[in-house]
Structures are given as structure tokens and as C-alpha cells.
Amino acid sequence: MEKIYQYIKDHATTPSEALEWVEKQTHIRTNHPRMLSGAVQGQVMRMIAQISGARDILELGTFTGYSAICLASALPEDGHLDTLEINDELEDLIMEGFDRAGLADRIDIHIGDCKETLQKFREEGRTYDLVYIDANKREYCEYYELIFDMVRPGGIILADNVIWDGKVCMDPLPQDKQTLGIAAFNDMVSKDPRVESVIIPLRDGLNMIRRKA
Ligand SMILES: C[S@@+](CC[C@H](N)C(=O)[O-])C[C@H]1O[C@@H](n2cnc3c(N)ncnc32)[C@H](O)[C@@H]1O
Q1: Phi then psi for 167, rounded to 5 degrees?
Q2: pTM for this structure?
Q3: Which atom of ligand 1 is least distant from the CA of 84?
Q4: Could you identify the atom of ligand 1 that is nearest to the CA of residue 26?
Q5: Distance CA 168, CA 164 (A)
Q6: pLDDT tens across 131-186, in order?
Q7: Which of 114, 138, 139, 203 has most ligand 1 atoms within 8 Å of CB, for mutation?
């Protein structure tokens, strides 16, 4: 698996210098570098954003900004990305990465609990073409409810880690809150008549959901 992943990485478009910098700093300066989405998933998401023609993007869970840079680099010049992160200690690293990528003017970071920020965005009437869900795994169902009306008809929702190391299809299902949260989310999406969806077996699983027009 490692070998094939390396092969795929070697044959994908090379990440920018800014992305290489963010990845390196994430390993040096954080305790959980595995949370970073990485070169292959980043390139897939960048291409989804590009192909869909997204102009306004929302991300839940910035971490060190890797996926935000991938998504924002697909935006047109007048495009915009809002990214939500609860950990204020990451802000300096995130901002430096956005600067190095030349994307600081297209990205706004909102520090705080994303459920509160989302409530505020709803009241402000914000809308998006693409939403990437990658924050607290226990809360994916709540995020889905909060963001759904903000997704434009025909828009896309991407949700990360939906395979959760294979735990979502164990029998019996592990009873930890993260596994239960993701399993409930996948069930909810697959039964939602307002969308079409498929889980892409990329890294830890990416649920690609399209709001019907
Ligand atoms: C898996 S990491 C995100 C990785 C990033 N999207 C990437 O691909 O490089 C999840 C992030 O969500 C943040 N997070 C967790 N709960 C949150 C919440 N309630 N509100 C905002 N951010 C949250 C964590 O602090 C962490 O940085």
C-alpha cells in the first residue's frame, strides 16, 4: 500500500513550494502531522474545485492550512475561501503558509468553534459552491445540517475520513464517539434524497456529495 501510494504521489502534479513548506512545518511544529491531507488528496480536491468552477469555498477544520491552500489555489481571481479552526495556536503558521502561497487575499481564517461560526454565517446569508468538512468527527451530522442550506443547488460537499481506518464497516461497530459520528453521517447522507453521493476510497475516505440542482 505504501509503495503504490508513493507511486501515485510521484505521478501526480508536484505540490507547490508553499505546500512543501506547510507540510514540513506541520511535522516540525505540531503533534499530529497525520491530520494533514497531503499531496494526493490535496491535488484531487484542487481538481474537484477547479472542474466544478467553485467561486466560494468553505472549509471546516483548517489545521495548518494545507487543504485550504489546495482548494484556494483553484479559485478564480475574484473567488474566496472561508476556513474555520478552533485552535488559535495554529494561526501564525496558517497565515504564513497562505502568504507564501500568495493566497492571503483570497482566504479568511475564522478562529473559534465552527458550529458557532456557522450559525453566524447562516444568519449573514452566506452561500458556497463547495464545502469541505474536516473538523470534529463526532459532529459531522450537525455540520451537515448547519451547512446544507448554505450550499448552492448543484454545489458540492466533501467530507474527509469517512472510512475511519475501516472502523465504519466493522461488525459490531466500535462504540467510540468518532466512529459512531462518522457512521451516522455516512448513513444520513446515503439516505438524503436531496443529494447524490459516493465515498471515494482515497486515503481515509472522502465522501463526495452533490446537492441536486
Ligand atoms: C483533520 S484536521 C484538518 C486538516 C486540514 N483540513 C488538512 O487537510 O490539512 C482537523 C482540524 O479541525 C479542528 N477542529 C476540531 N474541532 C473543531 C471545531 N469544533 N471547530 C473548528 N475547528 C475544529 C482541529 O483543531 C484540527 O485542526
Answers
A1: -70, -25
A2: 0.98
A3: 21
A4: 9
A5: 6
A6: 999 999 999 999 999 999 999 999 999 999 999 999 999 999 999 999 999 999 99
A7: 114
Locate the domains of the chain by residue range: 2-211
Buried b (16+ CB within 10 A) or exposed e, 183-202: bebbeebeeeeebebebeeb
Yes or no: say if 157 and 118 are a contact pair by the CB < 8 Å rule: no
| pLDDT (tens digit per residue) in 18-31 | 999 999 999 999 99
Element (H, E) at 160: strand 151-160
Phi, psi of 202 (to 5 degrees): -105, 125
Show Cβ contacts of residue 137 under 8 Å, excluding neighbours closer than 6 positions: 161, 164, 178, 181, 182
Q: Hey, whose CA ends up nearest to atom 16 of ligand 1?
A: 136
Q: Which atom of ligand 1 is nearest to the CA of 87?
A: 25
Report whether 186 contacts 137 (CB < 8 A).
no
For ligand 1, atom 8, name the residue with the nearest CA.
37
Query: Per CATH, which fold does 2-211 belong to?
Result: Rossmann fold (3.40.50)
Cis peptide before 172 (omega within 30 of 0): yes
Q: How far is the CA of 60 from the centre of ligand 1 (A)?
A: 7
- Ligand 1 atom with minimal separation from the 36 CA: 9
Q: Which residues approach ligand 1 with their CB closer than 6 A?
A: 35-37, 61, 63, 66-67, 84-87, 113-114, 134-136
